[in-house]
């Protein structure tokens, strides 16, 4: 997966969890939770979806790495290199 | 036959189904077993003399309009990956709390209720505003809090006993396992779910919700078995080692989640519930469903739910006799904002009832007693709504005995044990509780209970 694809993968997951949220003009450098209404249960679900769809484990101490889209892409790209972007559901 | 699962869930009521959806979604092998032939538990459905009836479901509480953020209903939909539209909810028209000479109307817009309290109880208007702030600021989701008497908290803020009773009446009926009082946290949960948020119903009633949940569970890969009760949980070294079903089959599961109730679950483990904090609840109801020859609105009745009390003081307790007709809940499932009206007019009446009295009765006295209690309840009910008695074409009545028979809950208890296990833990390391005895009540509550217990105990890797 390329970096833009990893970004898309994260956005697709957020859309799965919060289909009612507008994700079009999200700013990659700003905290996701300041732009999208996600509570702590929703945030944990991002981690769970990453495991479910891509088999990537994000340990609790690394949750801050998912705070912005930019950081998520940096953190996840090496871990998702050899994965294919999953089809949207 | 021997089978292996990650999680076995006891009971396909709202809480078991919701937990199952989460677990199966995240790839667990889940077996959901239900003793009854029909799923839904305390909120199931049945067919009688050609008509579809719901067991519970007067109203789905916690209704908020589509797009509202951060509320229980929105949270649970997200957690289950169900879209708002799939629930097909239609909002209520208007409801009320009706006492002798007093009526407080409320709708899904809280300002109506606030104005009504100020109009009926002008001397309490400021204090009521303080109470509203107190409720708004309370964090009811904190699972670590201790039980506090709601009567004590309210008594510090309000002084008019009738107003206090008029607040307790709807909140007790829609979610208290305690007699006379409520836990303050539960009071806040119920107040928010009924007054700050509101009521709605899918046009097809509970069938729609149950079908949605069970289909989602199966789509996610879960296995549902009906007419499949758990006979016992075989305990070894502080764990449930295996599960024996009513038909003798043995199933292995890493973890067990039970919605059967604490006392009932302990007995499955061969342990008598002897502790004070292990006792089953006592609060149960009888319910009548009257089918009318016209719509309630044709009789001038526009209220969705009417919580009534015809005596001076509101009593919430196990009655001395078979039932207590002097307070209860009147529900007209017709009075929701549907696109198309329901085919027939229905009036449902719930009153408090006593399990042991009903349980001791023999046929045909049982049937006669049901009808006598029904007539007595309607004598009170028509003090608050138009007299629909001449228009009744069919009626079905169920009692605490019916509830026990179809859900297995001791005493036909609707809201479970008075002592809740908010963290869902039991004396065994791989056995957890969800549903009424964990502590979140009602349809939305039970679904949230299943979700939160699944998240807390069963989805950790
Ligand atoms: C008359 C009535 C009206 C109601 N009205 C409303 C309303 O208008 N709005 C609202 O929000 N709530 C209402 N409720 C409350 C709501 O129905 C319940 O709070 C909710 O359904 C509880 O779900 P649960 O999953 O906790 O428990 P349950 O539904 O009781 O689920 C437990 C399940 O476990 C099964 N079981 C038990 N033992 C075993 C065993 N050994 N093996 C296999 N299966 C077993 C039972 O058969 C049952 O299906 C009403 C309830 C009643 C009775």
CATH-level-4 superfamily name of the largest domain in chain B: FAD/NAD(P)-binding domain
Helix/sheet category of chain A: mainly alpha
Helix content of chain A: 40-55%
User: What gap, in angstroms, lies between the N and C termini of chain B?
Assistant: 28 Å
The number of helical elements of chain B comes to 14
Mean pLDDT of chain B: 96
Tell me the radius of gyration of chain B.
21 Å
Arithmetic mean of pLDDT of chain A: 94
Bound molecule types = flavin-adenine dinucleotide
**How far apart are the first and last residues' alpha carbons of chain A, in Å?**
18 Å
Looking at CATH, which topology of chain A would you report? Non-ribosomal Peptide Synthetase Peptidyl Carrier Protein, Chain A
Shape descriptor of chain B: globular
CATH architecture of chain A: Orthogonal Bundle
Weakly predicted, low-confidence segments of chain A = none
What is the string of helix and strand elements of chain A?
A: HHHH
Quaternary status:
heterodimer
Number of strands of chain A: 0
Q: How large is the share of residues in beta strands of chain A?
A: under 5%
Q: Describe the largest sheet of chain A.
A: none
Helix content of chain B: 25-40%
Q: Largest interface, per-chain counts? A: A-B, 15 and 17 residues
